[in-house]
């Protein structure tokens, strides 16, 4: 596990440096948040190196065996793949279908994968979340959301 931690933290530090170089072209205000999160990424990566170096036995239990992840059954793996495919489909079709129509379906299907089977609660949650996000971003913050086939209605 230590080797994986070193490789992962090295990659994250390189990614952070690359993002810092890219964000240097932005104006002061536009670059503030990317730089903040990049510095945070680099700091956490250095923390992972430190933790791996000075606490190498963190993943070893009292019997001397290395603790692995909790074993997952095939259905959990299948649900993970379904949610990843669903997310890719959501991103690809967002511009064409629109946020207002696609997001309730996306949220509903994700919760269905998580074993929420009450149709009323599922519909209320997915539609309520979509309405809330639309009000906050579209109307209060003025951030345009993809309208898709509902273009020119809002």
UniProtKB/TrEMBL annotation:
<keyword id="KW-0812">Transmembrane</keyword>
<keyword id="KW-1133">Transmembrane helix</keyword>
<dbReference type="Pfam" id="PF07331">
    <property type="entry name" value="TctB"/>
</dbReference>
<feature type="transmembrane region" description="Helical">
    <location>
        <begin position="36"/>
        <end position="52"/>
    </location>
</feature>
<protein>
    <submittedName>
        <fullName>Tripartite tricarboxylate transporter TctB family protein</fullName>
    </submittedName>
</protein>
<keyword id="KW-0472">Membrane</keyword>
<dbReference type="InterPro" id="IPR009936">
    <property type="entry name" value="DUF1468"/>
</dbReference>
<feature type="domain" description="DUF1468">
    <location>
        <begin position="9"/>
        <end position="146"/>
    </location>
</feature>
<feature type="transmembrane region" description="Helical">
    <location>
        <begin position="7"/>
        <end position="24"/>
    </location>
</feature>
<feature type="transmembrane region" description="Helical">
    <location>
        <begin position="80"/>
        <end position="113"/>
    </location>
</feature>
<feature type="transmembrane region" description="Helical">
    <location>
        <begin position="119"/>
        <end position="141"/>
    </location>
</feature>
